[in-house]
Design a protein that fits this description.
The chain is an alpha/beta fold. It has one domain: Metallo-dependent phosphatases (Purple Acid Phosphatase, chain A, domain 2, 4-Layer Sandwich). It is 26% helix and 19% strand. It has six helices and eleven strands. The protein binds fe (ii) ion (FE2) (2 copies).
Length: 258
């Protein structure tokens, strides 16, 4: 069991868009070692692999199996490209990673709800379920992901809550990308469940050229932790965002498993 990094706070290292390729072995070791040194848990916000192949997933799983802190992840669109996201999930789960897909986990009293999410656009620019069946299917996918997030959030019983996504739930963190592709970077439909529950923070990736921080309309911080964005905006620090929350009193934390 790793030692807490701080007695008063729990620290999360968050990063997305690792895009592991077949020749990436060894490249992430330093990043993960830094994260394990600074944080109590590692949060991975999708696009963990570049093409979603079993080979890429195996390389990432081997790197992650040496990480001494809990790792929680959601998949991204790239993890679906090969058509076998279940192989990516299985490889990561085998390495001890908790892969969330409309599900939850709890780390030292902090509840985490995770879902990949989907696109569709933001605010008045959101695509509506109208017209051709293909459009309705596209919109339905975003609604399904929002529903999965909602039901995951409803299960959390912790006072502290964070959400892990791949797609952006607010337009603020995709600013910087070409406006033409905003609808493919996220959806306001993902923001709706986040407004119904008390949240501490939301993390996502996907918008590599977006903006690091924005807020939901009820003022919850949303962090875009796509690795290319972190590398570009903080070139002198390891590419993860270190986020901390005050530790919950012991009586609020779930008892350790026997
Ligand atoms: Fe990505
Ligand atoms: Fe992505």
């Amino acid at each position: 069991m790793p030692q807490p990094k701080s007695s008063s706070h729990i620290r999360f290292a968050a990063v997305g868009d690792l895009h592991v390729q077949s020749d990436s072995a060894g490249e992430l070791r330093e990043l993960f070692a830094h994260a394990a040194d600074k944080a109590d848990a590692l949060l991975l916000c999708g696009d963990l692999t570049d093409y979603g192949t079993a080979e890429e997933a195996g390389i990432l799983a081997r790197e992650l199996s040496a990480v001494s802190i809990p790792v929680v992840a959601v998949l991204g669109n790239h993890d679906f490209e090969a058509g076998t996201p279940e192989l990516v999930t299985a490889a990561l789960a085998h390495a001890g990673v908790r892969v969330l897909d409309g599900s939850i986990c709890e780390i030292e009293g902090v509840g985490i709800a995770g879902v990949k999410g989907f696109g569709g656009g933001f605010g008045r620019g959101s695509l509506g379920a109208w017209g051709e069946p293909a459009i309705k299917l596209f919109v339905q996918e975003a609604l399904n992901e929002a529903m999965k997030l909602e039901s995951a959030l409803a299960k959390l019983r912790t006072r502290r809550r964070i959400a892990l996504l791949h797609y952006a739930p607010v337009v603020g963190t995709v600013q910087g990308e070409p406006a033409e592709i905003f609808p493919f970077l996220g959806s306001s439909r993902l923001e709706e469940p986040l407004l119904r529950y008390p949240m501490d923070a939301v993390f996502h990736g996907h918008a590599h050229r977006g903006t690091f921080e924005a807020r939901t309309i009820n003022d919850v911080p949303v962090y875009n932790v796509a690795r290319p964005l972190l590398q570009r905006t903080r070139p002198d620090t390891p590419p993860f965002f270190l986020y901390e929350l005050p530790r919950a009193p012991v009586e609020e934390q779930a008892p350790a498993a026997a």
